[in-house]
Design brief:
This protein is an all-alpha fold and 112 residues long. It is globular, with a radius of gyration of 17 Å. It is 79% helix and 0% strand. The N and C termini lie far apart (46 Å).
């Protein structure tokens, strides 16, 4: 019975930490992480469905991007995803990318 309470407590703590992770970042930083995590999710989905890297690059090229830095970053994320041996589900890749990006941005802000 005690293990059950500890498990629930751990889940609640993780949920609170995840929502507090973005604290201290501006809206633009959080949106960049959300956008990048969606690119990573899409790339993992393409990879797992058998789409070639060439086709994935072509798909990225036809998209419209609101910021000048986005096409290059999207290619980098996609190529890195394809180079990985990971077989994780796209939603897991999205979460891992977002969490890592938020962590990186918080460290970058802290170093200033």
């Amino acid at each position: 019975m005690r293990f059950g309470y500890a498990g629930v407590a751990a889940l609640v703590l993780m949920a609170v930490m995840t929502s507090a992770q973005a604290k201290g970042l501006n809206r633009k930083q959080v949106e960049m992480c959300r956008w990048g995590s969606e690119v990573a999710r899409s790339a993992q989905h393409s990879k797992l469905s058998g789409t070639t890297l060439w086709r994935a690059r072509e798909n990225l090229r036809t998209r419209k991007y609101p910021e000048r830095w986005m096409p290059k970053m999207a290619r980098g994320i996609t190529e890195q995803t394809y180079a990985s041996r990971s077989r994780l589900q796209p939603a897991s890749v999205k979460k891992a990318y977002y969490d890592g990006c938020i962590h990186h941005e918080r460290n970058r802000v802290a170093r200033r």
